[in-house]
## 1
Amino acid sequence: MDRESGRALPPMLASVLGWLGEVAFLFRKEVLALFKDPANRIILFAPAFIQTLLFGYGAILDLQHVPYAVLDQSRGQAASELIARLDGTGVFTRQATLVSANQIAPLIDRQKVLMAVTIPADFDRKLASGGNGEVQVVFDGRNSTTAGAAASYVSAVVRALNASRSGGQGVAVVRRAWFNPNLESRWQIMPAMIATLSMLQTMLLAALSVAREREQGTFDQLLVTPMTPLQILVGKALPSIVVGLLQSTIVMLIVLLWFRIPMSGSPFLLYFGLLCFNIAAVGIGMTLSAFALNMQQAMLYSFVLIMPLTLLSGLLTPIRNMPLVLQYATYVNPLRFGVAIVRRVYLEGAGLGEIAINFVPLLAVAAVTLPLSAWLFRHRLS
Amino acid sequence: MSDCTVVCEGLRKVFAGADGRPFDAVHDLTFSLKRGTISALVGPDGAGKTTLMRMVSGLLKPDGGSLEVLGTDVAADPQAVQNRISYMPQRFGLYEDLSVQENLDLYADLHGVPQEVRAERFRRMLEMTDMARFTARAAGNLSGGMKQKLGLACTLVRVPDLLLLDEPSVGVDPLSRRDLWEIIEQLIASDGLSVLVSTAYMDEAGRCDDVLVMDHGRLLAQDRPQAITARAAGLTYRVTPEPGTPARDLQARLIDAPERVVDAVPRGGAVRFIRQSDCPADGMADLLQGRPVEPRGEELEDAFMLLLRQHDAPKPNAPRDAAIPEIRLAAKEDAAGEAVIHVRDLVRRFGDFTAVANTSFDVRRGEIFGLLGPNGAGKTTTFRMLCGLLPATSGTLEVAGVNLRRARSEARRKIGYVAQKFSLYANLTVRENLEFFGGAYGLRGTVLKQRVHAILDQFGLDGAAASGALPHGYKQRLAMAAGLVHAPEILFLDEPTSGIDPLARRAFWRTITSLSQSGVTVIVTTHFMEEAEYCDRIAIQDAGRMLALGTPRQVREQAGGESVDDMNQAFIAIVEQGRVKGRSAA
């Protein structure tokens, strides 16, 4: 520690050590200031914990317990079998057994049921005579996603019924979903949360770091020290990055141990990806922070940005469905590539070679935002 | 009692202190104010002046005693009182994005001033404040002094039965301060206003009919200014220092002997001091060391200091009064006289506005150099360029032999900086703050530990205390300690004494004197012109130009006139001469 009493170091090494030493003092100050506040200690970690559980249970696109009504005018054996199969999927829950077609509209209107299945009186007779039985299904189209998913479930049930009646003849589709055998949406969403949830807070944390000091007048005090803008940048960005990685770890542990979604890839690669992602996110946060004149502005800028970043990340909606302009916009969104890296490593077990292309935009964002914020430290005049 | 505006008896207000314990912000106050008079409320920081003002205006409920304003019990019916008074708080709520006229209109609306009297009232207020030219300008773009004048105009859109002004002149330069008082005095003469004004300036209190001296929530005295001044009769002297030595060295020696000397300040090249009444007139030969002493006429400030010291005596532990021990820093003494700051043709422009024009000066090692100027004169800009916070547009700027425009980081290593308001990390401890700043200046390991330990000792600070919860005086010491932890050659202080009371100001300057004696160069900006007397040399700037540069005596002589003793007058004269010259040149 004591450089005076130690052997003389080569001047180059000594200046590098001095440089790092000053950064270390700033890093230590930032961490102290962050964790001294008991409220901060909770705010930094409790939300990550709670939000992970919320998303795990709340943000599920799979259908379960879809309420439906059935109007069986045929009362034949084939009709009963179809109803039994619908009830048996676990996806549908029969809410009502109707006796007349004009009962359907009120049930759907009042959202008592999501769909109503009508089996006409001639259903069994047509089937028995070798013809096509027709089943009419009315959906509540107000929520097109759910209606579409329910429709495909109904089709699958009907296909299965056909197959069993034809004695196994005909073409059957054998499905096998790679990386997510049961096609559970939780598997799709939760690993992505390892990147998404940590970004919300690391960006805000970085955004407040300089703005807070500007507001409290301590930033001038920092600028008059011999520290260069680069040193201040590194000393201020590192704590946010570390907090981001800690938050990612919390989310990952919950995903792995509580929701039991197996990790296929290398944890080292995952963390390397998260590190690069966090650097880019912190770069954006630091730029907002260096630009903002006070904490209120920094907070406002962050909240304005977080919404589009999340929407354009491919977290919930496929990017290739977006208009071309928006697809181009996603290239500057670190979350898009963070989500891609995490999903591919976690679910697919992808290696560095396969996902390397995702690092390019992340590093590009960092390479622009970090120097920009360092420049703004001294050139943003109040 | 119908001839009184304010009558209170046994008035109390209790607050929770920084340490969580309750204390009496206002303790057992009993006094009354006469209608048609102007009363001054003076006292150091935390004396309870603002608390009293807020209770009189019905914004705070008293915790005990009775308070009648204009014949109404304020606690029972604050609205009835507020309908008849006008109150200008320390930070008046101007709407910065609205224009001067819109602010006036808004306050006239809020106070329900009838349309037919408005035009005449506005015309008068704008004329008095000399702002008729600026009615379209956004309030946020006015200088500090102009904002204060506009605040006063907005407060006075109607004629109140009682006007309350809470430190209207705080942070305002002498010129704006003089204008502000002219407005107030005109209004008293024409409208027969009753006024209660709190102030930190004794010359302002001396203009009033009645002075109330407060400290620690208690009323120490209430009387006519002349009667209060008389309390210091026969105790006041002037002593001339040995030629070639700064007056502040002699002043420091005197103020370090509080059992014999109540107060000592440098003034007009000499030192004014007040003798303790129980000390015989010839009992301080050892302090004066044979320098010529002559009695001088007593002033209100002398009586004020006397009252404060008498009142403070039973509590020697009061933080703001504890003298800071001698500071010794390892600065080079051999090179005294050599220039450590070298400024040539310094220019700073913001767009097409020239904030600092062609400024040149040198500061020599060990000097105390004061930068003075009205609000918006360019002294803050100059100051920020000197400590490397703001790049210069053009010119030469060398600090400690290093060109600040090229090797900024290297130059910054040699300077210490103390910001205007407390700007250290409030949730870190005192030690953590000092260790951080020491580390940031390249101190490491045992060297850092020793320096932090030494500076904690020197400033009498407790390393484990939370910085944010320190009393004001200690916060300022910590800020100084943080600026000095790396033993800089040059210390920059930005308005270090703004908003602190006379006692704390003397303690502060005592520290600066010690620093300068140990060879540190000090650059300081200030609003208090009498503080220029502590400086070796001062520079006065206005509108970006350097108007005067030299020792306080040279500057006073440049000002001319009979007021050689009074830095305030000298300052006003120089700025006005400069403005006349500027206009005739243009």
Note: Residues 314-335 of chain B have pLDDT under 50 and may be disordered.
## 2
Amino acid sequence: MSKKKYIAFIIEMVLFIIASLAFYQGFHYWMADIDGFKRIFKVCPMYLTYFLVTYVLFAYYFLTHQPNEEKRAKTLKVNGFGLTIGGGLVLVLVIVNMILGNYEFGNVSLIFPVDLIIIDVLVAAVGVFTIIKKSWILEKMPVICKEYSKPKWLTVLSRILAFLYVWIAEYFLGAILMCPTYIDFSAPAFGWTIPLYLLMILMSVVLFWHEYYLVRESAGQPIPKKNENITKIVLLSFATVVGLFVVVSDLFLGETTYYVSHNLQCILPIDYMISLNLGPRLLALCPLIALWFNFIMSMTLMKKKVAEPLS
Amino acid sequence: MKHKRFALVSLLPLLFSCAGANVDLNYVQELNANGDEDFVVLQLTDIHWNYSTNIKEASAYLNNTIKVAKELKGHIDLIEVTGDTLLVANKKIATTIYDLIDSWGIKWAFTFGNHDYEGEWSEAWMNELVSSSHYQNAVLPELVNKYDKVDGYSNYVINVKWGNDMNWQIYNIDTHNLVQQSGSYDYDYVHPNQVEWYKSQAELAKKADNTYTPSIAFFHIPTSEINDMKEEEKIGGIKDEKYCPGKTFSEFYGVAKERNCRGMFFGHDHSNDIVWKHEGVVYGYGVKANIELYSTEKDDVSITGCALYSLHKNGTFDLEHLIIDYDNMEQGKSSLSWEVKDL
């Protein structure tokens, strides 16, 4: 059983990487039409297609992180229909746009809009498969987290923060994976961007580590407390030092080095749209908040464990 | 914007080391007028191709604009692409637009706009793409701007000659992108070391009688000085939005004026194509060459098309804004077009 759990964890990580690439691409399609949404009918299916890949990841996550059998069956059913309808509807929109001549073959990517069709068909197929093979999936798919007793408000808060964090982490992992298209090691002030790239990677590393922690717990092979603490201290120290470096260098040298506008404009389009330098601060804060939140939560749960041990 | 002085204190100084290459820093390109005819410059600005662009339709519009301008003037000698040619896009879209521009078989020059950095490429990649090393009709010398110490990539000069006489200079100046100021961004400007570079180039082009050669300058973002100018000598065009210049003061306007710069032309504000004269120098916006992002309309006609500058051998020039409605491009030159002679 524990082998299955590790395989499920690996699948989740692979899905996360694929979803990151898709989310980054979808976000950029969305940005292209954000000023007035004049071409929403044309562009909407383009970004929705790529955002659907993220939905597949979330559906998988819901399924593998729901220890309650009844809720799990319901989750599977709802998301199966969600994926089928989502994929199907966006596919129809893509085909209508093709018929209307809105999509010119190969003008966005080599195989555009065939890439959209392939993704939508795959998503819808995953949805249909989920509906048809519901019992098989429920039987074979392991749950890779334990049920923790948490106050309701904490559950809601942690879910909201987790969603926000995952989206941001996805976007920046996508940006890192796409960097061969835009990175220039000889660019002016490139060195100042290295801490930002490290934080982009760190955001995903924190997620990977969190999921690895959960799978080890649920497989009955928890990470030894000493190793867990060392990892937490290393991650927190790294996030603090690099985050501080980014904030301080941004405050004192950003104006003169132009390191963001030279090297990161394609990654931070929202910053440029609203003329606010948010990206570096967001990158500095997100891993820190996530790590501290996780740390405080685990302390709370630990206290609870001591008071009334979870079975 | 190559602030290399900070490279020494950065984390990985080696990564900065693009200096040291043995490059001949010759910023000057030379183009010849045909006989005694005017040298006609066509300015395209703010094309803004992006992921949502209908490329077939936008290409047709640009092709038609060039065709109408050619019919009107008889010939076009140089196309000035003054920035924001692209928006959120990828290399494929970027290559498509510059392939199209090069396919017209006319020499073309390029300056960076603030949106040209938003796509999936590096500044260096874009600089190389639009340079003479990549396109046979591009006049931007690639290596000069990559290895020099002048901020920006698209700083260069085109000397226009009638026979052996160099009667005009055309300056292309990179107004960069955005400048970070206390957590927010403002539009950038012509930096002091670019002003010094301009001075040195103007000195090199002095005539035998020690006078400066007449010139015009093209760049994307107007600098803050235009806010202080009264348009009491409006030449033509419309002002349909507030000016959006960089907020930092640049000495460029004063320095250029003293060195016989006759006109400074920019893009950036899509709903302005106003041109005016101030203290003997002509300042003004080009005409947006597409409807992407936002554009303006008057009498149901889109204020899109191109600006045309006919440089006379005698040091004066004509200016025309050729307005072609985007939705009725086949009708050609609209009645909203205007022209002023002998500026």
Note: Residues 210 and 294 of chain A are 9 Å apart (CA to CA).
